[in-house]
Every structure is written in structure tokens, then in C-alpha cells.
């Protein structure tokens, strides 16, 4: 245990995490900066995470909100570049937490908590030892400082706890294990709604298989990631999983943040393998170039002196002031919200009474019964909420199972299934009541050994209205 947490750690690992996580959080902060007045200031009502009686957070005026958000952008950029790294990380942590708690609905999410933990642990580490402005003036002869491994180990345990907690939550929810939660999330405009996600949700059995694969991966990752042979395959599977989620769903910065966080599992062997590849590419490029003249010691000394000037506190504080002041000036002259008096807020127009009445009447209408039926499938075998076998070809003596899945919170439905034989006559039927709390109905028709061969139809009606009809063939 002592070796696991307190052995000397290579600073390159956490430097890579610092750059990747800092860049992700920086891009996220830049996307919110334009709306700082709306999200964090007194000019518009904020939605605090905690009731103000329990946590009396001061809500800043518009100018101060813009200054703080602009400073947050600077601190995240400085942390990414490794400039006054520890100060930048702590400042970014405090501002991210303070501003985020003022606007739970807009900018504070589960991945925000993960990002805050990484900022704190990076501030406790030696992540500025390499690939940082703070390390640029040290010179080639000085070895990068190595610190204890516990900040990186805690990050690794944090990632494992995220996966294990997610797996336990999914196992407890029958909606996830059977694929329904994933299916409706892919169809929802807030979480999904994209063309690829809609295609995935329409594939037979695929949402259930993807859900089970996700649970399996999240359960195995916290235990197998410590096995050297399993580490790289698991990391590759994690990248594929998160990229797939990013393409099919709207998850904010969760995917790039998780992929960046997974860099804490990079080992020295990975750096060595990458260095071999880079050296080979360099050798190929240098063979095609004219050899350059060697640089003198005076140039190296001048460069080192230049970096020492940039590492001063005066330059750092001047940059903070410049970035925050520039951000305030841009928001002041643009004044998109009218918070600085340069433009008047747009007046609210009263809607005509006729439009209001029509909208209220439309909101009271109940959806037609066919809108409450989400999925209809045919098959010769059934298990749970899935049917198997060909939906277009059945043999004599088999049973034609009809699975009907209703949308969540649907109106009570009376389902009727009609089996139409090749002559156009009704050969069989079933009736079933589907209450609001029921999501599935599995019924069907038994084909006898003397059933007529040929093309059949199955018509499904809900509350007396036809929902769909399916064609299939009965063969010997």
C-alpha cells in the first residue's frame, strides 16, 4: 500500500492529464462565457444548486460576473499551459465551483463534479514538472521533479468508482437492462434525437445488447484495469464506448472529459512505445531535409532568460488583469442583455387572445391511440421484452407472437389483433387491455398443422383504430 500511494511518480503522466483536462474545461468555459450575465449575475434570476438559506452564496452584479468568468477562462488556459500551475489550478477550482453553484440548470452537471475533483488533485501533484511554462526555464540538465503517486492513484480510483457506481445504478434499473432506457434516450431530443441514434434505436435487439455490454464493461473495468495485459484493451474499449455515446447522444463535455481522465492509466511503457514511433517519423522527415546549423549556447541562454521573465508574478498578474478587462470590455460594448445601459431590453409583446385560447385548447387534447404504441414486432419465440425468429416466415405448428411496446405514461389501451388468412377472411383474433402502468403486451396466434399456406396479415388496433399491419408467410 505504501508503494502504491507514495512511490515516486513520473510527472509526464499527470502533465498529460493536466493538458487534456484543462483544454476540455477551457473549451467548456469559453462556450459559457458569452452568457455570464444571464447565468451568474443579479441582472437575471439565477437558479442556485442549494437554497440560499442553507448556502448564502453572494450573487455578483453583471460587471463582476463577467470579470470572474473571464478570469476563469484565463486560469484554465494558464493551467493548461503550465503557467503558475498550482495557483491557476486552485483559482480555476474556486471560480468553477462558485459560479457553477449559482447556475445548476445551465452549467453545473455530474461531469462538472468530476472536473472539480481533477483540478484539486492536479493542484496537489507535480504536473508542472514537464511540458509547462513553469518547467521551461529549468534547463536541459535539470531532471523533472517527481512527486508521490497518490494524486494519480486517487484519480484512478475516482474513475473506477464512477464506472462501478454507474454499473450498480444500471443493474438496479430494469429499464436499462432491457434496453428501454437507452432506446428512449436515443429518441429523445434532449439526450439523443440524432440520425445515428434513431437508427440504433430501431435495430432489433441492439439497444438491449448495447445496454448489457455497457453494464459488463463498467463492472469489469474497476477490477481488470490493474491487470497489465487487460489495461490497453480496456482503455481502447473505453474510448470506443465514449466516442459511440458522443456520436449518438448529447452529453456535453462528458465524453472528452472521461477520455482525458483515462490518461491517468497511461504507463511508462506507453510513453516509450510512443517515443519509438515519433523517433521513426522524425528520422524519415530529417532524411528529406537539409541539416540545419547547430545553435549556439547564447541562443539557449537567451531563451532561458526569456522564459524566466514570463514566469514572474508581475507578468502573470498583468495577464490576468488584461484578460479579465478585455472580457468585460467586449461584454460592455456588445451589451447583449442591456445590463450596462447601452441598449434597451426588448419589450415584451402581448399575444392575441385568440392565439392563447387556441394554444390552451391544443394542450388539453389527448394524443391519438396510435401515438401510444411505440414498437410492434413479430417472432416465433419470446423472452422477456424481446421476440426472436424471422418476422416474415413461419412454419405450420408455430406460434406467431405479437409483441407490443407502449410509450411511457400512455393512456389505457384496448389492443385487438386480427389474423387475416390468404383468402382475406379473419382466421383468429385476440383482445388485451393495457393499463397505463403496463409497458408490454405479448400475445399471438397459434398456427395449426393444417393451417393454410400462403401470405397472411396481422392487423393491430388500439382503442378501435388501426395502428399497423404486418405481412408474413406460412410455409410447410
Helical segment count: 18
Terminal CA distance:
68 Å
| Biggest sheet details | 5 strands, mixed
- The dominant shape is flat
How large is the share of residues in beta strands?
15-25%
Total E-strand runs: 12
Tell me what the structure shows:
With 476 residues, this protein is of the alpha+beta class. The protein has two domains: 2-271 and 309-322, no CATH class; 369-475, Macroglobulin (MG2) domain (Immunoglobulin-like). The protein is 52% helix and 15% strand. The protein is built from 18 helices and twelve strands. The strands form four sheets. The protein has a five-stranded mixed β-sheet with strand order 6-12-11-8-9, with no helix packed on it. A hairpin with a 5-residue loop joins strand 8 (413-420) and strand 9. Helix 4 runs antiparallel to helix 5 (85-102) and helix 13 (228-248) packs antiparallel against helix 14. The radius of gyration is 31 Å and the shape is flat. It starts with a helix and ends with a strand.
Fill in the keyword field for this structure.
single chain, 476 residues, alpha+beta, Immunoglobulin-like, 2 domains, five-stranded mixed β-sheet, three-stranded antiparallel β-sheet, 12 strands, 52% helix
What is the compact description of this entry?
The chain is of the alpha+beta class.
Which secondary structure elements does this structure contain, and how are they paired or packed?
Elements: H1 2-6, E1 8-9, H2 11-33, H3 36-40, H4 62-81, H5 85-102, H6 110-123, H7 133-136, E2 147-148, H8 150-172, H9 174-177, H10 180-187, H11 195-202, H12 206-224, H13 228-248, H14 254-261, H15 268-287, H16 297-310, H17 313-334, H18 353-363, E3 373-379, E4 381-383, E5 386-388, E6 393-395, E7 399-406, E8 413-420, E9 426-434, E10 440-446, E11 454-462, E12 465-475
Parallel strand pairs: 6-12
Antiparallel strand pairs: 1-2, 3-7, 4-5, 7-10, 8-9, 8-11, 11-12
Helix pairs in contact: 2-4, 2-6, 2-14, 4-5, 4-17, 5-6, 6-8, 6-14, 8-12, 10-11, 12-13, 13-14
Amino acid at each position: 500500500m505504501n508503494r502504491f500511494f507514495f512511490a515516486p511518480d513520473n510527472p509526464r503522466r499527470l502533465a498529460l492529464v493536466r493538458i487534456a483536462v484543462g483544454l476540455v474545461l477551457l473549451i467548456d468555459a469559453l462556450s459559457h462565457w458569452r452568457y455570464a450575465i444571464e447565468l451568474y449575475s443579479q441582472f437575471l434570476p439565477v437558479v442556485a444548486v442549494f437554497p440560499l438559506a442553507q448556502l448564502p452564496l453572494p450573487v455578483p452584479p453583471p460587471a463582476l460576473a463577467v470579470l470572474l468568468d473571464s478570469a476563469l477562462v484565463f486560469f484554465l488556459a494558464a493551467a493548461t499551459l503550465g503557467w503558475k500551475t498550482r495557483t491557476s489550478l486552485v483559482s480555476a477550482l474556486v471560480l468553477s465551483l462558485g459560479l457553477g453553484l449559482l447556475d445548476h440548470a445551465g452549467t453545473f452537471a455530474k461531469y462538472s463534479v468530476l472536473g472539480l475533483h481533477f483540478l484539486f488533485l492536479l493542484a496537489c501533484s507535480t504536473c508542472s514538472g514537464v511540458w509547462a511554462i513553469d518547467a521551461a526555464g529549468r534547463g536541459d540538465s535539470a531532471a523533472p521533479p517527481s512527486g508521490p503517486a497518490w494524486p494519480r492513484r486517487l484519480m484512478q480510483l475516482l474513475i473506477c468508482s464512477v464506472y462501478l457506481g454507474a454499473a450498480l445504478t444500471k443493474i438496479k434499473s430494469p429499464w436499462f437492462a432491457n434496453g428501454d432506457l437507452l432506446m428512449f434516450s436515443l429518441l429523445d431530443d434532449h439526450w439523443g434525437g440524432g440520425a445515428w441514434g434513431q437508427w440504433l434505436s430501431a435495430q432489433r435487439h441492439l439497444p438491449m445488447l448495447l445496454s448489457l455490454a455497457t453494464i459488463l464493461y463498467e463492472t469489469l473495468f474497476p477490477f481488470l484495469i490493474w491487470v497489465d495485459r487487460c489495461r490497453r484493451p480496456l482503455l481502447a474499449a473505453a474510448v470506443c464506448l465514449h466516442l459511440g455515446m458522443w456520436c449518438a447522444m448529447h452529453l456535453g463535455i462528458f465524453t472528452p472529459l472521461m477520455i482525458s481522465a483515462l490518461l491517468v492509466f497511461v504507463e511508462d511503457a506507453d510513453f516509450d512505445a510512443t517515443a519509438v514511433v515519433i523517433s521513426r517519423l522524425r528520422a524519415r522527415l530529417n532524411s528529406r531535409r537539409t541539416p540545419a546549423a547547430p545553435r549556439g549556447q547564447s541562443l539557449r541562454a537567451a531563451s532561458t532568460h526569456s522564459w524566466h521573465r514570463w514566469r514572474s508574478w508581475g507578468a502573470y498578474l498583468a495577464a490576468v488583469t488584461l484578460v479579465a478587462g478585455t472580457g468585460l470590455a467586449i461584454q460592455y460594448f456588445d451589451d447583449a442583455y442591456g445590463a450596462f445601459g447601452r441598449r434597451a431590453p426588448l419589450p415584451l409583446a402581448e399575444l392575441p387572445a385568440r392565439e392563447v385560447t387556441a394554444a390552451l385548447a391544443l394542450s388539453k387534447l389527448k394524443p391519438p391511440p396510435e401515438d401510444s404504441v411505440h414498437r410492434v414486432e413479430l417472432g416465433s419465440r419470446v423472452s422477456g421484452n424481446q421476440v426472436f425468429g424471422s418476422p416474415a416466415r413461419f412454419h405450420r405448428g408455430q406460434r406467431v407472437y405479437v409483441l407490443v411496446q407502449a410509450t411511457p405514461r400512455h393512456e389505457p389501451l384496448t389492443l385487438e389483433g386480427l389474423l387475416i388468412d390468404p383468402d382475406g377472411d379473419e382466421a383468429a383474433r385476440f383482445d388485451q387491455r393495457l393499463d397505463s402502468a403496463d409497458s408490454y403486451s405479448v400475445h399471438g396466434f397459434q398456427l395449426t398443422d393444417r393451417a393454410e399456406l400462403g401470405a397472411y396479415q396481422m392487423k393491430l388496433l388500439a382503442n378501435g383504430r388501426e395502428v399497423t399491419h404486418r405481412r408474413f408467410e406460412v410455409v410447410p
